[in-house]
Design a protein that fits this description.
This protein is mainly alpha-helical. The protein has a domain at 518-643: Histidine kinase-like ATPase, C-terminal domain (Heat Shock Protein 90), CATH 3.30.565.10. The chain is built from 24 helices and five strands. A five-stranded mixed sheet has the order 1-2-3-5-4, with helices on one face. Helix 11 runs parallel beside helix 13.
């Protein structure tokens, strides 16, 4: 009788929530009428998960039914899973207190069952809750606990997932280098497992990180990788998200034409998916593009449509974005009254959201306080009974405390001794590293001094000698009488001219005057022109941000590195197109060299290539970072990123 009433209630609820669910009620009714066993619990849990994306309330009904049935038939694993499923739905609803309670109940059961994989999964979700509430330290601890278990179980897919979560937490903490390190580790696992969806996610996250670092070249590069993979997966949600992300980069660059094209493509996909929230968000961004380009009528249409959809589906973030965009548009078109009204609506809504969240936090604190107070009252009732036991235990506690103090003193002494040793080792290592850097800089300085000396000898010595020989030769050739000797004189003259040009070229490459006099960009332009003028290789050179010099040591190192890279391209790549990008950011200089040649095996070449080892040494000397991307037959991309002193 109880099962029948619950079944009828679930079916009625589904009909009321959405008529579309009516098509599924027949199979659901059959499931609800089935005998109570573990398979029925599992099926109800599956329904809870499936309806999560359609109706959170319906999903909770299925989850609660699965929980009651699992308790009735004494199925601990099913009880733990039901708690877990409902917790996820409460996370989606931002009811983090209830979600935490359910996860802790699930954790108790999984610990009794020694279900390590389930325990790790709960740590993961607790970490997500901590992160959403801004408790980043606790979030990191939970994710690391999950990671240790997944590593113990060799579950590489979940190792990659957890590494990705840890990277995002470090990014929120502002540890951007650490975040990038963990994103790369996660990417390695996902590539190894051929987890294309995970690989796509990693590329997108790394692109977000580079965008935050203002390295838009790298950001666009990784967004495009994510976009290509999402197209291969035919995952429209990912495709539209990556299109929007790339569009935001182009908006930042004020390349509104490209941004608009990509936003439009993203909008078409989201309209096809029926993604109302995504449609509202994209329309808001399109409206901003129109506003920035002076197409005010089209901007107003897009922003009003975005606002309408956001209000229909009650998505506050998109409503705020649309209101702010319309307020700015009205200000641009000198409709100050309308702009003021819209800004008042925006501020009122924002304050309302803040108040709602603040009230929820106060309610959570108040509930916790009342719970703690109730526990204290219960403890007072038990206190008299426990007094006698406490006195009996007091003597034992004092003895154990004395033992603990003695052990702590010994432990502290050992720790201090160990710490002293570690500091000595660290100081020695730091001194060694400093000495190595000094030696390396001395070697490079000696090389450059030798280059200057040889270049000067070539120019002032051999170059002048060749010029003198050429002048004497021209004087003699003018006095030659026999016409039969004229071709020989002409041939010798060309040889002298070629020899002089070659000496000047070598001298220039060894000591480019443009670098010392004008800086890195003119020197690179001169080097590319000199080396590639007669080569069957087209090249493009793009640069930005070089309004002032960046320091002789960095300029010289970047120039020599680029010389080595171009030499490698000419000798080995068999490419017909070379792209060089040089960008000066606020605190870094980024050099990217890309060719469409035959590529190479990076690991093998890094171990055996003298040229690449020389490049790596120069980059180490200026505390830079080197990254190769290459596969046989797919070209090569080399990125050097170095801080500006």
């Amino acid at each position: 009788m109880k099962v029948f009433i619950t079944s009828a209630f679930i079916v009625c609820v589904l009909f009321q929530i959405n008529p579309v669910f009516g098509n599924a009620t027949k199979s659901i009714q059959e499931l609800l009428n089935a005998k109570p066993d573990t398979n029925k619990v599992k099926s109800l849990s599956d329904l809870c998960w499936d309806y999560r994306f359609k109706s959170a309330d319906s999903a909770l009904i299925f989850g609660d039914y699965a929980l009651k049935l699992a308790i009735e038939i004494n199925y601990p694993k099913g009880i733990a899973q039901a708690y877990n499923d409902m917790a996820i739905i409460f996370i989606d609803k931002a009811n983090f207190r209830r979600a935490t309670e359910l996860l802790e109940e699930s954790l108790k059961i999984r610990e009794k069952l020694n279900d390590l994989s389930g325990i790790a999964s709960i740590y993961n979700k607790l970490g997500i809750i901590d992160q959403k509430q801004g408790r980043l330290k606790e979030a990191l601890e939970h994710q690391i606990s999950a990671l240790k278990i997944y590593q113990q179980l060799n579950q590489n897919k979940w190792i990659g997932y957890t590494l990705n979560n840890i990277a995002i937490i470090h990014q929120n903490l502002g540890n951007l280098d650490k975040a990038l390190e963990y994103h790369k580790k996660a990417l390695e696992y996902r590539i190894q497992l051929k987890d294309i969806l995970g690989e796509t996610t990693s590329y997108g996250n790394m692109a977000n990180l580079y965008a935050r670092l203002k390295d838009t070249l790298s950001a666009v590069n990784y967004y495009e990788k994510a976009l290509d993979l999402s197209r291969n997966l035919k995952n429209d949600e990912l495709i539209s998200a990556n299109l929007s992300n790339i569009s935001n980069i182009y908006m930042g660059r004020k390349d509104y034409a490209k941004a608009l094209n990509l936003f439009t493509e993203s909008l078409q996909i989201r309209e096809r998916l029926g993604d109302s929230k995504g449609i509202s968000s994209t329309l808001s961004r399109i409206g901003t593009v129109y506003s920035e380009t002076g197409r005010y009528r089209e901007a107003a249409k897009a922003l009003h449509q975005s606002l309408k959809i956001a209000r229909e589906i009650s998505v506050v973030e998109e409503e705020l974005s649309a209101l702010l965009g319309l307020a700015k548009l009205k200000a641009l078109t000198h409709q100050t009254d309308s702009s003021f009204i819209l800004m008042r609506q925006y501020i009122a809504l924002k304050d309302s959201v803040y108040d709602t969240r603040l009230k929820q936090q106060i309610l959570d604190v108040q509930t916790q306080y009342e719970t703690d107070k109730l526990e204290q009252d219960l403890n007072l009732v038990k206190k008299d009974k426990e007094v006698t036991e406490i006195k009996l235990q007091q003597r034992k506690t004092e003895i154990w405390l004395l033992i603990f103090v003695i052990i702590s003193i010994i432990g502290a002494g050992i720790f201090l001794f160990y710490r002293h040793q570690q500091r000595q080792k660290a100081a020695i290592n730091a001194e060694r590293i400093s000495e190595q850097e000094t030696r390396m800089n001395a070697v490079f300085q000696a090389q450059e001094e030798e280059r200057r000396r040889i270049a000067k000898e070539l120019h002032d010595g051999i170059g002048q000698t060749i010029s003198a020989i050429k002048m004497n030769y021209q004087s003699l050739s003018g006095k030659a009488v026999e016409k039969e000797l004229a071709p020989d004189f002409e041939k010798i003259g060309k040889m002298l001219e070629n020899a002089g040009a070659e000496v000047r070229s070598i001298s220039h490459q060894m000591l480019p005057k443009e670098l010392e006099q004008f800086g890195l960009v003119p020197a690179v332009e001169g080097m590319l022109s000199l080396n590639l003028e007669n080569a069957p290789l087209k090249y493009q050179f793009e640069h930005s941000g070089f309004t002032e010099r960046i320091g002789n040591q960095i300029e010289l190192a970047m120039f020599r590195i680029l010389q080595e890279l171009i030499s490698n391209v000419i000798k080995h790549s068999k490419a017909n197109l070379l792209t060089v990008q040089l960008v000066k950011l606020k605190s870094h200089v980024v050099l990217n060299v890309t060719d469409n040649g035959i590529g190479f095996d990076v690991e093998c070449q890094e171990k055996n290539g003298i040229g690449l080892l020389n490049i790596a040494s120069r980059i180490d000397a200026i505390k830079g970072h080197l990254h190769y991307e290459s596969e046989p037959g797919k070209g090569t991309s080399v990125t050097i990123r170095t801080p500006i002193a």
